[in-house]
Amino acid sequence: MTRPTPPVSRRSGTDWSAAPLALLAAAAVALVAVPLVALLLRADWVAMPGVLGRESVQQALVLSLTSSSVATALSVLCGVPLAWWLAASDQRGAFRRRVAAGVRALVTLPLVLPPAVGGVALLMAFGRTGLLGQRLDAWFGVTLPFTPAAVVLAQTFVAMPFLVTTVDGALAQRDRSLEEAAWTCGADAWQTFRRVTLPLALPSLVAGTVLCWARALGEFGATIVFAGNLPGSTQTMPLAVYLTMQTDPQAAITLSVVLLLVSALVIVALRGRWAGGLSRFTSRRAG
């Protein structure tokens, strides 16, 4: 049997019609790459161990790693059940779908909300005279602002939506026939979630968790408003960069390079998984 001849392209010679698009694409890449390359070139790699050996820097680094890890754990603990509920609600009645759409919009709002506005909102909610903060102070003597707990709360506020969005998109694409088979075998809702649903979404859960941790590690705006910038207490690495830039720019460059390398490692570890999850999530909503 003779194979069909593939169509012959009508293009001949060099097509310059796409040149403006290529130039604009190159400009976009340069806009991102040039500042990062400049940062790496200006870094004093020889002095980096000395800068990282400073007590204030070590305190900021330990606080950043600890608080971002706790914030990520809280995000997983609360965000995964929320993502499961959102995905499950899309298969229910019209009223529940509308409620889920409202909750989804509310949860993803911190993704586009200016971080400083998030910090002000946290103060209005958990400050000493805030909506809930005044009751925590009066009933339990607990004051959250300008404490390490405030750092964790601010990081959770801005980072959890990344986890919820990623896991929600993955759960929406799962094979529901496997869950139905588990129900047929007598598994209850918790057993089905733990043994079937969660393993199906595990790659996206891992990607969302790493992305959530990286976002918490780099949080600045909400933290400085709600938790302050107290060295040894609430000063995280991004805040240390901001403070050091005013007194020792070279040290600030070194700290920035450290955060840049951590972010690069996160991107390499994810290997595009979270981006693919977000793409599926966006296309499903658009459809």
TrEMBL record:
Residue ranges of the TM segments: 21-41, 61-87, 99-126, 138-164, 200-230, 250-270
Keywords: Cell membrane, Membrane, Molybdenum, Transmembrane, Transmembrane helix, Transport
PROSITE patterns attached to this UniProt entry: ABC_TM1
Subcellular location per the Swiss-Prot or TrEMBL entry: Cell membrane
Main location: membrane
Occurrences of domain ABC transmembrane type-1 (ranges): 61-270
Top-level taxon of origin: Bacteria
Topology class, membrane: Multi-pass membrane protein
Keyword Ribonucleoprotein: no
Cellular-component GO terms for this entry: plasma membrane
GO MF entry, a single one: molybdate ion transmembrane transporter activity
Pfam families: BPD_transp_1
UniProt similarity note: Belongs to the binding-protein-dependent transport system permease family. CysTW subfamily.
NCBIfam families, sorted: Mo_ABC_porter, modB_ABC
Task of the protein: Part of the binding-protein-dependent transport system for molybdenum; probably responsible for the translocation of the substrate across the membrane.
Protein name per the record: Molybdenum transport system permease
